[in-house]
User: What shape does this take?
Amino acid sequence: MKFELAIFDMDGLLLDTERVYERVFVLTAAQMGYKGTKEMYARTLGVGNNRAKEIFKEIYGADFPSEKFLANSHVNILKDIEQNGLPERPGATEILNLLDRKKIKKTVASSNDKDFVMFALERGGMAGRFDAVNTAQDVKRTKPAPDLFLKSAADFNIPPEKCIIFEDSENGVLAANAAKIRVCLVPDIKMPSEEIKSKSFRVYKTLHDALELF
Assistant: This one.
């Protein structure tokens, strides 16, 4: 297989952010007088802020102050990263180095906000490693809609069959399927269902294992 573009999610795939978000979800909920659990947080994996706000209201009710929760969470996330750092996921630098050697273009396609994505890539030592970075601000709809992946391919006028996506979340796999681009699933916190596995081109334990594709 000859790929010309590798498209990466960021959270939980390149960088170990999901554990930060999980800790912060529980902490922020408690600070605001609500119960937050890992299971509740798992429902928000791989979605943008607009969908997350809908999920918060499904969990806590229509009166839940979603905007305040997101604002407080952002502050706590930055504090957590300042205190604990932001490690990369296993094999991340290894696969980026391999793609560089093979002159295969690389992009990030994240449902997160651009300011945070750029901050996280910098803190994780990956700033400047990508040919393009697309985020929630660059498309009308985030995952599970296909917009981020379609824009990533269109940025370089590369057809879907020449692209490969790397994702850790169910919503990422669904978005890749909607874009009709092959996707490799590298699960992080939430283990995939058999249905999601069946929608994936490959399932790997780590990005190191994905080196065999190239």
Summary: The chain has a mean pLDDT of 95.
